[in-house]
Structure formats: structure tokens, C-alpha cells
Amino acid sequence: MTILSILDTAPVWQGSSPSRALRETLRAAPEAERMGYHRYWVAEHHNAPFIASCAPPVLVALLAAGTSRIRVGSGGVMLPNHPPLVVAEQFGTLAALHPDRVDLGVGRSPGTDMSTARALRRVSSPPGSEAYREQVRELVALLSPRPGDTVVAVPAAGGAPDVWLLGSSAENGRFAGELGLPFAFAHHIRPQNAEPALRAYRDAFRPSAAFPEPRTLLAASVIVADSAERAEWLAGPSKVIVAQSLRGVRNGPNVTPEDAAKLHWTADEDAVLRERTAHHVVGDPETVRERLGELLARTGADELMVLTLVHDFDERLRSYELLAKAMSAGNP
Q1: Residue-wise over 75-103: b if at least 16 C-beta within 10 A, else e?
Q2: How does DSSP classify residue 59?
Q3: CB-based contacts of 195: which residues, under 8 Å, 6+ apart?
Q4: pLDDT in tens, 238-274
Q5: Which of 106, 96, 54 has the alpha carbon at shortest distance from 76?
Q6: Distance between CA atoms of residues 211 and 282, nearest Å
Q7: Fewer CB within 10 Å: N-end or C-end of the chain?
């Protein structure tokens, strides 16, 4: 049975609002639990008018309170933006209130532009690979207190969250393996790095008390609809997002499928967009099941986490439901 999970950025759409986006996130988690999804993670982004997920610990608290079984967590907390002690206390509190249900996924991207990153990092260590590594080690130590420690994340004592390292490179995978942590790979960001990163993780893995065996998760862009044509229409805004990112002009909410369908691309633009979105898994249930099965077989990932950028809330839930049914078809 394929283990399925969800990554939610609380996308803000034209004609909607951050408030509505956040409320849809809170409504979606219980539905995901009902459908049998394993985890529901929220992201950390800042100063982005198309994403309302800025404060993972706040959202995770509400998601945990609104569900009973599904694991909830961050995908992820961008650790260079925060003092490790604060993160340990926040997620230690969540884990104390919701035992064995909270995940703390951490990453090193700023999750924003550099001007905003500078504003966020006023009380944190400067960006950089070694500084980030030290922050991760400090965070892990705070969540595993030992007698004699002079600084303790009090709520984490006796019930810390599961820590996952997020990444999109072999370097990230290797570091997660060296620490004996589970590794969540961002296939939706760097699909070409999936196999080498997961291989580097497994090669470097050193068993830890919490994780005696390597554990991997693959996050992918997935949209499922009853027909391939409908799925492609729903995915129209994703192409616009890619085009805007390439042009460096993402300065408003995500466009609707109706507006995306009105846009016309030159032959060269269309070719580039097809190349840049080839890793998006879009289609009817059978097509998606086959493509995801091939992806999981190729990478050996233990779990699939889907990012589903669909404008209409009901159609987003329909995509989740179709995916859950498709991936369980034929499994014992």
C-alpha cells in the first residue's frame, strides 16, 4: 500500500484572500484524514501574496486540534529564519499536546526574497551551509535533552516531534543520513536530483535512536481529475506560475484556470513550459497511478507527498480522493 501525504501552501487565488486560503487548509485536513492520508504538512513562505502559509506552528496547532489521527507538521520550518530554541519550544509544545502526531520538517531555504530574509534573520545566525548545519544539530540536541544541559526546551522533554530534514540535493540527503534523520526530497522543485539525493542519503545513513532505518519521502506536484482534459485545464495556473517565475514577476495571487486558458504562448514559450512542467503529474486516475508508480519504483521512496495547486476547493478535494483511490487500486 502506497503511503500518501499532503503538502499544503495555503495558495491564494485571484478573487480570494489569505483568510479564505487558510480556512480552506483547515477544512481540507479532516477530509484528508477521512480519505486515509498519512500526513498533512504546511509550508513556510514570507512576503508572497500568492501563499498564505507563513507561520507553520500556528497552523499545525489548529490542524492537530481539528483532526484526531493524521500526522500534522511543517514542510517545512526554514530554520535559518529562527533561533533553534524557539522552534524546539514551539514544536515541543505541539508534540506534548498531540503525542505521536507531530512532525517537524526543517529546511535551509529562506522561503522568501533576500530583503525579507534579512528582516527575519535579525535574531538568527547568518545564512550559509555550515551555519545551517550547526542550527540543525542544535535543534536536534534541544529536542533530545540530556542530564546536565544548561538550556532545555521544556515542553519537548519526554515527547519531542519527529524531525525530518528537507532538501533537493545530494548534499542535503547526505547530511540527513549522517544525522540519522528521515529525509523529505522536494521533487516538485528539483526533480532531476531525486535519485542521486536519495542514494546519497541511504549511503550516508547512520542509525539513530529514533530512526534505526532510513526513511524517505518524495514531495511531487500532482493533479488528478476524472478526465485527462479536465486535469490539464485545472493545471493551467501551474504553467502560469512557472512562466511568471521564469520572468521574475510573481507579484500577485495565483491566476484562475479561466484566466490561464485565455493566455497564449509562443512556440518557444510553450516548449520551455512543457519542459519545466514535465515532472508535474497531471491526468486521469489511471495515468497518474502509472506515473507515480514508476516514480516511486525508480527512486525507492517510502512515501509520496503531493502538492496539489487547484483553484477550486471542491476540485482540490476531488483530486485528493481520486488519487487515494487510484493508488490503493490493486494493493492488498
Answers
A1: bbbbbbbbebebbbbbbbbbbbebeebbb
A2: H
A3: 298, 299
A4: 999 999 888 877 778 999 999 999 998 889 888 999 9
A5: 106
A6: 34
A7: C
